[in-house]
Amino acid sequence: MCPTEIDGVYNGAIETDGIAQHLVVANTPALEMQTWTLAAWVWSDAPPTTFLTIVGKPVGVEVANSYELGMNTSGMVSRVVAGWSDDVESQGLSVPLPAFQEWFHVTATLSETSATLYLDGEVVDEEALIVVPAFDESPLYIGADVDSLAVDNFFSGRIDDLRLYRRALTAEEIAVVMAGENL
Questions:
Q1: Which architecture, in CATH terms, is 4-170?
Q2: Residue ranges per domain, the chain?
Q3: How many CB atoms within 10 Å of residue 105?
Q4: Angle at 149 between CA 148 and CA 154, to 5 degrees
Q5: The pTM of the whole model exceeds 0.70
Q6: pLDDT tens digits, residue range 51-60?
Q7: Quick one: what percent of the chain has pLDDT higher than 90?
Q8: What is the spatial distance between Cα 71 and Cα 48, in angstroms, rounded to a whole number?
Q9: 93 and 126 in contact (C-beta within 8 Å)?
Q10: Nearest to residue 59, comparing CAs of 134, 4, 109?
């Protein structure tokens, strides 16, 4: 089921219902990124009660992802999460979710040596790269994920200006992306 197109921060955004709406992008070699940047303007309708996927590329048949950006609840704290996996080991970053029912910008970068999570252009988490992402023929999902061969983790909210880059952007480049400009 396709998301609804609505006004966003820049031009049109998609709104997903958290039940079934999502987009699927067929796998191509361009999506198999050893270094990357995932960036988007996000509006969360409510605190997540489970993991909610903004964008992700599954790998394997269980719950691993080559890369993923989403939200979850850890204890009583709702968090923005970025993660990646080699289908055996996983690694990730997270930060408390800033707000609900308002736009915020989230960016995750993975370089050859480290991973960094940005919220509204500010570094909020960073660590050395331990796990190198693995890839298979799985497509890219926007607003959902595949775990144990079933589509789930449906996002409830809005996603605007979603961008994927095949390299880790600098803080200066992320500021350009946040402003809706092209690199």
A1: Sandwich (2.60)
A2: 4-170
A3: 22
A4: 85
A5: yes
A6: 899 999 999 8
A7: 72
A8: 7
A9: yes
A10: 134
